[in-house]
Design a protein that fits this description.
heterodimer; A: Amidase signature (AS) enzymes; eight-stranded mixed beta sheet; three-stranded mixed beta sheet; 38% helix; B: Arc Repressor Mutant, subunit A; 3 domains; 16 helices; 40% helix; elongated
Chain lengths: 483, 476
């Protein structure tokens, strides 16, 4: 097996056994990144990576490392990294060298991980195709004419294209799960509040949550062990103790009740995607799970609700990008208003401007009640649907995306693009943990199975996913082997 | 036509916490520009606010002191607008769920009291400072102040004159200092007033259109600005015009107000709950604890001064109207409990006059409470007379030393030796026979002449009581 097809668990063993060093491993990935066409990275931090790899090797030699010491990874360019450009995929921050580390960055450093570079993404995490990056489209490793999904498209492409053993992602409306699904990897969005948002450039604060993007569920558990935890710098992070997410991976799933929301299998879902998803559910049934139909009646409102809440929050979150203190500033502003107007008009891309406009409009005097408040009420109803469903079932399953990866440049209408998020938004609105795991292929393109769990049930989701991956090999398929 | 003035005040009191409301940066005044602004204050991408719990405690204290309802669940909102000294493009404030709800406070004007309603008080962060006159082509921004905690105290439109507005502002000013939640320094901007002013025909219920006056940094200017605005509105209305709803800036130098922005130009702040901060939940235990920790408030102190020290209503009111004054008095009283009235007189008399003359605040007085207390003791124990004490006070003010040092150095100690006084009295009587005759024929007033002569002969050091007794005895 090529070294780059190994999982984190396998690489960790190899490093400890001395089969290869972190420096060799890191160089191997850097070489692969160097010849890759995927455009998965905005910044490759080769010098830093080699330094970190050397430090990791020293620790391994002394026997002072941990299970992740020396493992390379791709870091979504939304996480602030001290001394390294942090662009969030935007022209606005093309010149921004962060003077501090996000809590997630800090934790990954503390765990002796090796950052290969900053992964490409839709500008400020707004997009479902990674076509909204100032730094160019990312290509799907399975077919370079296809989109990798978004907004963590660079992260997903890096893992699927074997340019990194794992990547970090963030998920506001599906931005981990959807690209994971379209690229055939494993992606986990934890419960809102599980991973600190400090230093993660905010898109929609009440929805944003960071998580791991990996080859396997076991790897996701290993990485989440490092990423998760209370942070006094983030008031919305939970004080709840962090479990060892690897502890229950091998538990049996006999007696598990899987809920299938009928609303997730209706009109608009591609037939082949539907049949792959159902096949995966059947597989779990043969492993001892029972299937139950559930209803999430208000999920029909997930798209309009999300596309009010998220733009409202982003219109305010992105106000700090004003050309005054850092980031892009227009040439020769003639007065303050001109400085604001042109810096923001020139610095932001189309989709970001569209969402700022929607949000500013929805929050305006006279519209607030009709949009923002109503969306908050609907959001509550969506959460209540899940609460009710979880009285009867342990986990909810369905598709991640209505289709497989579509052609680059093929979806031009923003509303059609928004419809691609239909199955992922609800988990964000309710704050629930969600996962995407490889569940088959349709015309040589990966299909993902979505798992949505109750609050703080990451261990359960990882357990189910791991058990599924013990019985299937969808997650071990690679684009190269597909040829 | 007779007009009635209607005034409501919005007071911004800077809470005296060591660190900022949402970050760990220091709040000290006067530091080098931008040296007290951390990543959070600078509004860097990705940073998040974390509430400084101290500000909550201080706001609760204020609420309890004005008998207000405390919203034990209160919410921070974002007030969105663009300005270079507002780093995030929004100010974190409280709109629908302020920490302090309705309360009230009593003001005194002459011998009348009046209750003024407090509509609400909410927590918010201050903005930075834009400095327009430092560079020719640029505006400089100092973000040291950004994130400083403010308690915005909003009154009902209950005041009917500039004097009432000033009395209310002073009362709140004293209260926040009593509570030790704000240093009250108006020059440094720790205590700022905006005034909403409107007028209406006497007897009319409907409020007139108001103007909001900003940039007022002293009580004197508050009174002037309001009176100026009332005149301006009267002139407009009496000429048949209409008052525009607008924000007006007070210029203390030119003594004028000018329009800053009209209602139409006002921002739509697009308020919404800040998703980075959880609603504040105040436990019953904390409420009880803070209630117990509340210091003695002005009204209570005043009552105690009257019963404990036998002061008059007026004296007690003056002494308690400002916390530094009350503190000064209480310090003096430690060694002068028997001379409380004398202490009060010296604070309200010589000390107050000297401060006024030199335009000094009590806290900057060159004579400490302990120094003045010693001087009062020397009057009390008959070492010096009240008249001589005024000279000693002056010398103390000029830094010539303590009361005892000055009395010693200048030989001002009162003459209490009866035989010495007797000798002087005898001599004066011998030398002024015509006046002695006048006294004997019933002219009581002539006694003053003998006192004067005796004081002249003793450079004012003769004990007045002894001298009087001796004179009456000798003149028979």
């Amino acid at each position: 097996m090529s070294i780059h097809n190994k999982t984190i668990a396998q690489l960790s063993q190899g490093l400890k056994a001395g089969d290869f060093s972190s420096v060799e491993l890191t160089q191997h990935y850097l070489d692969r990144i160097n010849v890759s066409n995927l455009n998965a990275f905005i910044t490759v931090t080769d010098e830093l990576a080699m330094k970190q790899a050397q430090a990791a090797d020293d620790k391994i030699a002394k026997g002072t490392g941990n299970i992740l010491t020396g493992i390379p990874y791709a870091h979504k360019d939304i996480f602030c990294t001290n001394g390294v450009k942090t662009s969030a995929g935007s022209k606005m921050l093309d010149n921004f060298i962060s003077p501090y580390d996000a809590t997630v960055s800090h934790k990954l450093n503390q765990a002796d991980l090796v950052m290969l570079g900053k992964a490409n993404m839709d500008e400020f995490a707004m997009g479902s195709s990674n076509e909204n990056s100032y730094f160019g489209d990312v290509k799907n490793p399975w077919n370079e004419n296809k989109i990798p999904g978004g907004s963590s498209g660079g992260s997903a492409a890096a893992v699927a294209g074997r340019l990194a053993p794992f990547a970090t992602g963030t998920d506001t409306g599906g931005s981990i799960r959807q690209p994971a699904s379209l690229c055939g990897i494993t992606g986990l969005k934890p419960t809102y509040g599980r991973v600190s948002r400090y230093g993660m450039i905010a898109y929609a604060s009440s929805l944003d949550q960071a998580g791991p993007m990996t080859q396997t569920a076991q790897d996701a558990a290993l990485v989440l062990n490092v990423m998760a935890g209370f942070d006094e710098k983030d008031s919305t992070s939970s004080e709840r103790d962090v479990e060892d997410y690897t502890a229950s991976l091998n538990d049996s799933i006999k007696g598990l009740t899987i809920g299938l929301p009928k609303e997730f299998f209706s009109e608009g879902l591609d037939d082949e995607v539907a049949s792959q998803v159902m096949a995966a559910v059947k597989e779990l049934e043969t492993m001892g799970a029972t299937i139950k139909e559930v209803s999430l009646p208000n999920s029909a409102y997930a798209i309009p609700t999300y596309y009010i809440v998220a733009p409202c929050e982003c219109s305010s979150n992105l106000s700090r990008l004003d050309g005054v203190r850092y980031g892009y500033r227009c040439d020769d502003p003639k007065d303050l208003e001109d400085l604001y107007l042109r810096s923001r008009s020139e610095g932001f891309g189309e989709e970001v401007k569209r969402r700022i406009m929607i949000g500013a409009y929805a929050l305006s005097a006279g519209y607030y009640d009709a949009y923002y408040l109503k969306a908050q009420k609907t959001r509550h109803l969506i959460s209540e649907d899940f609460k009710k469903a979880f009285k009867d079932v342990d986990v909810i399953m369905g598709p991640v995306s209505p289709t497989t990866a579509f052609d680059l440049g093929s979806v031009k209408d923003p509303v059609s693009m928004y419809l691609a998020d239909i199955y992922t938004l609800s988990a964000n609105l309710a704050g629930l943990p969600g996962m995407s795991i490889p569940a088959g292929f349709s015309q040589n393109l990966p299909v993902g199975l979505q798992l949505i769990g109750n609050y703080w049930s990451e261990s359960k989701l990882l357990n189910i996913a791991h058990q599924f991956q013990q019985q299937t090999d969808w997650h071990t398929q690679t684009p190269e082997e597909k040829g | 036509m007779e007009w009635e003035t209607v005034i409501g005040l919005e007071i911004h009191a800077q809470l005296n916490t060591k660190s900022k409301i949402f970050s760990a940066a220091a709040t000290q005044y006067g530091a080098q520009a931008n040296s007290q602004a951390c990543a959070v204050d600078l509004g860097l991408p990705g940073v998040l606010p974390v509430l400084n719990k101290e500000v909550v405690n201080k706001a609760i204290k204020f609420g309890l002191a004005v008998d207000a309802h405390i919203n034990q669940r209160n919410v921070f909102d974002r007030k969105n607008y663009f300005y270079p000294d507002l780093p995030k493009g929004y100010q974190i404030s409280q709109l629908d769920w302020p920490i302090v709800g309705e309360g009230e406070i009593e003001i005194t004007l002459g011998d009348k009291t009046k209750v003024i309603g407090v509509t609400r008080a909410h927590l918010e962060e201050d903005a930075g400072k834009s400095i327009h006159d430092l560079y020719d082509d640029f505006t400089a921004v100092d973000l040291n102040r950004a994130g400083t905690p403010l308690l915005e105290i909003v009154s009902e439109p209950d005041m009917r004159s500039a004097k009432e507005a000033v009395a209310y502002a002073k009362k709140i000013h004293a209260l926040v200092q009593y509570l030790e939640i704000c240093d009250g320094n108006m020059q440094e901007g720790s205590f700022r007033c905006d005034a909403n002013v409107s007028i209406r025909p006497m007897g009319q219920e409907k409020l007139g259109t108001r103007a909001e006056l900003k940039n007022i940094n002293s009580f004197k200017f508050l009174e002037r600005a309001i009176n100026l605005e009332v005149e301006r509105q009267q002139d407009i209305l009496e000429e048949g015009g209409e008052v525009a709803q607008e924000t007006r800036l007070y210029d203390a130098v030119k003594h004028e107000t000018r329009s800053m922005r009209s209602k139409e130009e006002a921002n739509d702040y697009r308020y919404f709950p800040d998703p980075d901060l959880l609603p504040v939940e105040i436990s019953d235990e904390l409420m009880v604890q803070i209630k117990q920790e509340l210091p003695e408030l002005p009204q209570e102190k005043k009552a105690r001064f009257i019963t404990e020290f036998g002061l008059s209503e007026y004296d007690a009111d003056v002494l308690t109207s400002q916390k530094p004054t009350a503190d000064y008095f209480e310090k003096m009283i430690v060694n002068n409990a028997d001379h409380a009235k004398l202490c009060a007189n010296w604070i309200m008399g010589e000390l107050s006059a000297s401060l006024n003359k030199n335009q000094l605040e009590l806290l900057d007085a060159p004579i400490t409470a302990d120094d003045l207390s010693l001087l009062v003791s020397r009057i009390g124990d008959d070492t010096i007379s009240g008249k001589i004490a005024k000279d000693v006070f002056k010398a103390m003010w000029d830094g010539e030393g303590s009361a005892d040092e000055i009395i010693e150095a200048k030989g001002l100690k009162q003459m209490t030796d009866t035989s010495a006084i007797e000798a002087i009295v005898d001599e004066i009587i011998a030398n002024n026979q015509p006046q002695v005759e006048q006294f004997k024929s019933g002219n009581e007033k002539i006694l003053g002449f003998f006192v004067g002569q005796a004081m002249k002969a003793t450079q004012g050091k003769a004990n007045p009581k002894l001298l009087n007794e001796m004179l009456r005895l000798k003149l028979g």
